[in-house]
Amino acid sequence: MSKLDGKVAVVTGGSKGIGAAIAKALAKEGAAVVVNYASSKAGAETVVADITAAGGKAIAVQADVSKAAQAQELVEAAVKRFGRLDVLVNNSGVYEFASIEEITEEHYRRLFDVNVLGVLLATQAAAKHLGEGGSVVNISSAITHVHTPSAAVYAGTKGALNAISDVLANELAPRKIRVNVVSPGFVVTEGTHTAGIVGSDMEAGFIAQTPLGRAGQPDDIAEVVAFLASDDARWLTGENITASGGIR
């Protein structure tokens, strides 16, 4: 029997990168998965096709989780299709670097709306359906303690997410719903390729700081999330696991 047999999971931002790997890892462990996307419909449908081809269950649902009505519709779609909700992975996020001279109101609001408000709204919607044994896993970043230059706003969103997760772990604990965080280090994804980080001096710097001596891969993060989503992690809540190859 797999770790998540009979469970239903929603993965926000599940159309590519770490989110796609998480969706596949949860499905591999037996969960029916709702793959959320904001704009990449083709990417989400590819993830769903990969899951169903491997014998799993999945659907793709479009929603901008920074909008309350859409976050609610996402969760309702999961419950309508699969009858319940057991796991929420708040993976949806935006990362953009800007020096202090380059920060704008638009940059700030874009990052905080998705990375912070989106987590609050998705969790608010999910909490109405999560029961005893439910698991919320929030994807943060090791950048909160690596202190990368030009990442003030992005690191600020993840610091806020960490604090919110600690509060929600206590708030939802009486209902036996667990809330944990995974903080990846540098991971090779479509996003880090697009941002020009892969192959750059920045990537070399990250790897040089990593005791295990390599860049992370999406599966390195996904397996940790699958563990936290499962009953194997039943005694863990309020934890923040830094999945970074040893970066501290």
Mean pLDDT: 96
CATH topology, by name, is Rossmann fold
Give the helix tally. Answer: 9
Categorize the overall geometry: globular
Strand count: 7
Q: In the residues, how many domains can be counted?
A: 1
- The CATH homologous superfamily is termed NAD(P)-binding Rossmann-like Domain
Computed Rg? 17 Å
The percent of residues in helical segments reads: 40-55%
CATH class: Alpha Beta
Please name the defining characteristics of this protein.
248 residues; alpha/beta; Rossmann fold; 15% strand; globular; 3-oxoacyl-[acyl-carrier-protein] reductase FabG
Write up this protein.
Belongs to the short-chain dehydrogenases/reductases (SDR) family. One of its GO terms (molecular function) is oxidoreductase activity. By secondary structure, the protein is an alpha/beta fold. It has a single domain, classed as Rossmann fold, CATH 3.40.50. The protein is about 45% helix and about 15% strand. The chain contains 9 helices and 7 strands. The protein has helices at about 15-30, 40-55, 70-80, 105-125, 145, 150-170, 190-195, 200-210, 220-230; strands at about 10, 30-35, 55-60, 85-90, 135-140, 180-185, 240-245. Strands 3-2-1-4-5-6-7 form a 7-stranded parallel sheet, with helices on both faces. β1 (about 10), α1 (about 15-30) and β2 form a beta-alpha-beta unit. α1 (about 15-30) packs parallel to α2 (about 40-55), α1 (about 15-30) packs across α9 and α4 (about 105-125) packs parallel to α6 (about 150-170). About 50% of the residues are buried. The model has no long low-confidence stretch (mean pLDDT about 95).
